[in-house]
Design brief:
Layout lengths: L7 H33 L4 H33 L1
Helix pairs in contact: 1-2
């Protein structure tokens, strides 16, 4: 059985599935971090805003890195 190269449509479908998985995992992690920060709110009130800002910044940087890496991998396959 010979292997064929994936078509452009296959790569597009695979890429959109990967992106939706990453979106849901990012959403779940952001909800988790928000809950964790709210729980710590009673103890570390002065640091909550700083931690939340850092968390949002890091999440955006990670999302950009993940999307760029997944897109480059998908493009190299085709």
């Amino acid at each position: 059985m010979t292997r064929t190269r994936p078509t452009e449509i296959d790569c597009h479908v695979r890429g959109s599935l990967e992106n939706s998985k990453q979106r849901y995992s990012l959403l779940a992690s952001s909800v988790f971090f928000t809950i964790a920060i709210e729980v710590q709110n009673d103890i570390y009130v002065p640091y909550v805003r700083m931690v939340r800002g850092l968390g949002v910044g890091l999440a955006l940087i990670m999302l950009n890195m993940i999307l760029c890496m997944s897109l480059s991998i998908i493009c190299k396959r085709c």
